[in-house]
Design brief:
Radius of gyration: 36 Å
CATH architecture of the domain at 81-248 and 610-783: Up-down Bundle
CATH topology of the domain at 81-248 and 610-783: Multidrug efflux transporter AcrB transmembrane fold
Strand content: 5-15%
Structural class: alpha+beta
Number of helices: 28
């Protein structure tokens, strides 16, 4: 026997597997590696460790001429680090501005120190409670502390200002501290409990809002509890033994000529303001209808502002990253796709705003007709346009490549291309679903509030199907499994053995020559074995049919679905407007046949859940605030006077968002919820003081005027302190903070409206509500003779 060597009947090649994808970095061929952190690991720490290791490896590579180089093309820790740095910066700036406000109002360095100590005490105490609760220092907990900066000095301001007022009346510091603290203890407790009543229950909600509020809300509660303790213990103690008996502002020397004179002028302005407010308050009590009318007009205006404010789940972010997708007809070869993608890549990199471009041709699903780009822009300081504007410019540049269906998408935190708006059309019959989805697709594509609308429906992949005639095959002893195995061997080949070298194994793949792998051309000459190992012509037992197969199969709830996605147009109605318009269209036009439904997914689904959860959160906040106030004041009626300020705060928030062009998203909604807790502080001070004066025998109107003038300074101090704490958030010092700008603007707008209106609306309504309270009390005594009045 003469041995036959493999090389005599076949070509033996030491090669690679068939190429299914190609990756390029800035036009150069590359390999793309993704590093995932383990569950529970710190993202920033992992990223730093990877970068350090990359640098070490590059030193090794650098020893060879023309060797490879590792480049970090995307770092998901960058936005996290930017957010942490931004929030930390906001905390320190907020602390500085808050202390500055206190200094100007009290005009005393010692009083400022006493009040300002509430900030480090509360923050350090909050960190201790956070550690006990198992919280970490992250974006949400730091954001909570940055928003709480203005709140943390509120209690100390109220206590210290009242003590300061008694010292100005001539009392010694110890007596002033004792009397002043007792007068405002209930008001301070009520203010703090109102904030805790908002965030305590909401922190335990489920869903997206619950995830946001868990650590965020409880961190605020922790800080507020410590600030309350500080205000009722540390502030009075320091006021008694450290503050001194008074402070005269110096106007001599460098300090006096600058700071001193400014403070004297500010004190004069305060005195003038108190006088003007007293006159306005007296007129308000005489003509309350005018105040109520103005308030009603503001409520109506805020309603229109809310209607025309864009609503979405998350505001636009400008991290300078996005993706571009190309999609040629199914059946396009990898080489053809790479050729088109290379031209697009060159066009993209010609823009000076582009720092790097990662191109991946092909996909993990062996689709050679797709390509994806990950684009990173230079820093915002080096470019004149934001990411959103640049994407619009790029869309225009890509119009010559419309045959490749280019789509420009945002990049989410895990690096995948994402679309803000997604809706699924679901049903059992794919043909019916696709027909309905096409109608919805045309509707969405015609909306001016959406752009780059695309559908998951793709042209079918060209296929050559071998349809077996089971009867003929059975008669000839051929099974479908044998046919399938033979065809697979002819096209893909087989790996009957492995080759071992230096401890490594390599597959040995045996298959036909490339010219013989075309089943369509070789169908007539193809043979398959039967159970007796006889070769049977394939054409005798099967038919070859040219057809198309589905490009993808998507399933949801045991049904087929088609997904339609798009980007929101900047300045449009936002997510809420698009969802509302689509709901009306689908429900009024009978677009969907029986058995076909639709569901919002992704950010659209989160937005729907957000609206429902925020409504629940707002209702819970109002109920718990009422219960807290009712228990503290032992009255079912008095809390209504205090809580009148809640809609007034919301009015200011909605008007501020509308005028600033911000959207109502999860951040600004958190700001509105926060307002529910802090807005009551002004009315609590007014009502609590008025009740004390009335109990002392003062006539109701006189008590209201007296309480207003007495509490004007602490009300303005706490309001300006809160605004000062929110300014860094509202301004948006860098790109990371711009997504939270709406939160700061909503809070500041709500504080301004609630403060200005509560100073007149609460006294105007107090008379009527207090009369009703006394009437209820008299009826209760009449019905219960044994009850003491």
């Amino acid at each position: 026997d003469v041995p036959v060597r493999v090389g005599q009947v076949a070509t033996v090649v030491d090669s690679l597997e068939d190429e299914t994808s190609r990756t390029f970095y800035n036009g150069n061929k590359a390999l793309f590696l993704t590093v995932f952190r383990q569950s529970g690991a710190n993202t920033i720490a992992v990223a730093e460790a990877v970068k350090k290791r990359v640098a070490e490896i590059n030193l090794t590579f650098g020893k060879g001429v023309g060797g490879p180089n590792l480049v970090v093309v995307r770092d998901s820790s960058k936005p996290i680090r930017a957010n942490v740095d931004d929030v930390t910066e906001s905390i320190f700036i907020g602390i500085f501005l808050t202390v500055l406000v206190v200094f100007f109002f009290l005009g005393s360095g010692r009083s400022t120190i006493i009040t300002g100590l509430a900030l480090p005490n509360s923050l350090l105490g909050a960190f201790i409670l956070m550690a006990a609760a198992g919280f970490t220092i992250n974006v949400m907990t730091l954001l909570a502390l940055s928003l709480a900066v203005g709140l943390l000095v509120d209690d100390a301001i109220v206590v210290r200002e009242n003590i300061f007022r008694h010292i100005e009346m001539g009392k010694d510091p110890i007596t002033a501290s004792s009397v002043g603290t007792k007068e405002v203890t209930l008001a301070v407790i009520a203010t703090t409990c109102s904030v805790i009543a908002v965030f305590g229950p909401i922190a335990f909600l489920k869903g997206v809002v619950g995830q946001f509020f868990k650590e965020f809300g409880l961190t605020i509660c922790f800080a507020m509890l410590i600030s309350l303790f500080d205000a009722l213990t540390v502030a009075p103690m320091l006021s008694a033994y450290f503050a001194g008996k008074g402070h005269k502002i110096s106007t001599t020397g460098w300090y006096g000529s600058t700071v001193g004179r400014s403070m004297v002028a500010f004190n004069r302005f305060q005195s003038w303001l108190e006088t003007r407010y007293e006159k306005i308050l007296k007129q308000t009590l005489k003509k309350p209808a005018v105040v109520f009318g103005i308030t009603l007009i503001i409520l109506v205006i805020s309603g229109f502002a809310l209607k025309f404010t864009p609503k979405t789940f998350l505001g636009a972010q400008d991290y300078g990253e996005f993706s571009v997708g190309l999609d040629l007809p199914p059946g396009t070869s990898l080489g053809e796709m790479a050729e088109v993608a290379a031209k697009v890549d060159h066009l993209i990199r010609e823009n000076k705003e582009v720092r790097s471009s990662v191109l991946m041709v092909g996909s993990r699903d062996l689709e050679s007709n797709v390509a994806t780009f990950f684009i990173e822009l230079v820093s915002s300081k080096q470019r004149k346009v934001n990411t959103t504007h640049f994407k619009d410019v790029l869309r225009e540049q890509l119009k010559p490549f419309s045959f490749a269906n280019p789509t420009v998408k945002d990049v989410d935190m895990v690096g995948a291309g994402s679309r803000p708006f997604n809706v699924n059309i679901i049903g059992g019959d794919l043909a019916v679903v696709e027909k309905a989805a096409n109608t919805v697709f045309k509707k969405l594509r015609g909306m001016s509030d959406l752009k780059d609308v695309e559908t998951s429906v793709r042209p079918g992949k060209p296929e050559f199907q071998v349809v077996l005639d089971n009867r003929r095959a059975e008669r000839m002893g051929v099974s479908s499994s044998l046919v399938g195995a033979e065809l697979r061997n002819q096209i893909e080949g087989s790996t009957p053995a492995v080759f071992r070298e230096e401890g490594k194994e390599y597959d040995i793949r045996v298959r036909l020559a490339e010219s013989d792998r075309n089943l369509k051309e070789n169908f007539s000459s193809t043979f398959v074995p039967n159970i007796n190992f006889r070769q049977i012509p394939l054409k005798n037992i099967a038919a070859g049919i040219e057809s198309t197969g589905p490009a993808n199969i998507l399933r949801q709830d045991r049904g087929r679905y088609v997904q339609i996605a798009g980007d929101l147009t900047p300045g449009g109605k936002g997510m809420g407007g698009v969802m509302s318009e689509l709901n009306q269209f689908l429900q009024s036009e009978n677009v969907l046949p029986q058995g076909v439904t639709y569901a919002f997914v992704g950010q659209a689904e989160n937005f729907k859940e957000l609206i429902e959860s925020m409504a629940t959160a707002g209702l819970l906040a109002i109920v718990f605030i009422y219960l807290v106030l009712a228990s503290l004041y032992e009255s079912f009626v008095t809390p209504f006077t205090i809580m009148l300020v809640l809609p007034l705060a919301a009015c200011g928030a909605f008007i501020a968002l509308f005028l600033s062009g911000q959207s109502l998203d999860i951040n600004s909604m958190i700001g509105v919820i926060l307002l529910l807790g802090v807005a009551t502080k002004n009315s609590i001070l007014l009502v609590d003081t008025a009740n004390q004066l009335i109990d002392e025998g003062m006539e109701r109107s006189a008590a209201l005027v007296k309480s207003g003038t007495m509490r004007l300074r602490p009300i303005l101090m706490t309001t300006f302190a809160l605004i000062a704490g929110m300014l860094p958030v509202a301004i948006g010092l860098n790109e990371a903070s711009k997504q939270r700008t709406g939160m700061g603007i909503a809070i500041i707008g709500g504080l301004v409206s609630s403060t200005l209106l509560s100073l007149v609306v609460v006294p105007a309504s107090f008379t009527y509500i207090d009369r009703f309270r006394l009437w209820i009390k008299s009826k209760w005594v009449f019905l219960n003779p044994s009850t003491e009045s």
